[in-house]
Write a structure and sequence with these properties.
319 residues, seven-stranded parallel beta sheet, 12 helices, globular
Amino acid sequence: MLFGVLALLILCAFLWNYKGQLKIADITDKYIFITGCDSGFGNLAARTFDKKGFHVIAACLTESGSTALKAETSERLHTVLLDVTDPKNVKRIAQWVKNQVGEKGLWGLINNAGVLGVLAPTDWLTVEDYREPIEVNLLGLIDVTLNMLPLLKKARGRIVNVSSIGGRLAFGGGGYTPSKYGVEGFNDCLRRDMKVFGVHVSCIEPGFFKTELSDPIKATERKLAIWKHLSPDIKEQYGEGYIEKSLDKLQSTTTWVNLDLSLVVECMDHALTSLFPKTRYAAGKDAKTFWIPLSHMPAVLQDFLLLKEKVQLANPKAV
């Protein structure tokens, strides 16, 4: 009996793995649109999918990012300048993409553009500190998706939303985590709404990767700029050495940082080319072994583990 159950489990595992390796027949006639291609995941994705033979339309924020990307890719790849927070810009680019893809429609949309914003204790912040990450990471993603949906429905294509482990577990104050929780919610609604049209929607949840977005020095500089304008009461509560201690804590966790950006691009590739794309992809060793499992744990355990890593305040009773 036990042997039979074991054999069945092994067979199921084999079939599941085999199913995940089945690919779509032809990619050379398919168009994909990727946001945030100046650097990081988006840049590597644009170069990777260009080499594979896709017709890549890479959206960059800057002219310099666009120029550098075109210098490294084939003539198949087109770049466009896109600020996802500018609705007129988004509509204009969507119309350009429609003219470009014609009756084939758009096979793939990778919503990758994102910013970190300020990471700081919540009582340091104003509503303005939340605005940029939410406008870029959430509202910009929604606007691009809504404008591209008719083309994706025509092709019965794929949508890949790049979220974060910050969309599963709140690890710091600021607009980044709320924006990624919003992406997760939008992604789930979109996936269910698009299923009837044959459009697959996937979500990628990367852990901590070494990119411009996660630069600890830049994050500390933003935090210092806010510190200078805090009230004397809050400065007394946290203590003058709080930021330096926070940076030391951050740098001591570098063993968690993933250096290989292709781990995320491989998830994008599977979501675009597999006959059976996954609903969610965890990317990075920290996401798979710590953050995602912890997100399923009771809140009391989450709080205990995350608060243990926070810097102790100098005088929290000085209120």
